[in-house]
Predict the structure.
Amino acid sequence: MKLVRYGRNGHERPGMIDAQGRLRSLAAQVQDIDASVFGPAGQRWLRRLDPSSLPLVPGRPRLGVPFVGISKFIAIGLNYRDHAEEAGMPVPTSPIVFTKWTSCISGPYDAVLRPPGASKLDWEVELGVVIGRTARFVREADALKYVAGYCLVNDVSERAYQLEQGSQWNLGKGCDTFGPIGPWLVTRDDIDDPQNVDLWLDVNGERMQQGNTRNMVFGVAFLVAYLSRFMTLLPGDVIATGTPPGVGMGRKPPRYLQPGDEVTLGSPQLGVQRQRIRNAPQRPA
Ligand code: ZN
């Protein structure tokens, strides 16, 4: 099932996309798309639900982040062999783990704001893994049972902050609006094989990235098991699993995002996002 949240930022309501691609409301059934919906009990309930019994939502409301309760937004670096090559870095022998601050999360069609002083704003289309139940020291063979589903993530990155500010990457990964998630949370039963998901990304209509998750260095099950050795993964936590080749930093010459640019990214299984780049306002919140 494709779960969504629709409506004004901060006032989203729960819904789903039916087999015909129409938006239907779940507001009479559930408070929000939280762990009570995408966790194991909720998914058993969803499988018994008849989408045609749900009211259609009129118009084309904004879609927000498709679920709530994200306590951690973890990301994996250089997880595609060909992307490591374009970055001029060795293929990792163990996962490169960094964090995106949860305050960076934004809706799939919301603007991406370029921070003051940023000059190397870049794109990264990724498969996002959403945890469905508490995972701690899980075995790789069991790991997918802890996954609620999958979503599209744009791991927006400011390369100067990421690579020229010290030994870690986090400062260039978690600025406000650097974490578009959605439009859908696709439940695990709708994705036959997380290692066969196509991903693409365009800038101003020009194809920049094209890849398939089969080319990951470390697959989804391994990553869930690996991370659960170092932290307790909680329902709602998101793992951005790395990006295929074609980022702006890897182009010759490099191509970075400017205000006015439009980034469109998608996957046949996960839906489409679109973001306009704007300058961030230079004022306190
Ligand atoms: Zn990334």
Summary: DSSP finds five helices and 18 strands in the chain.
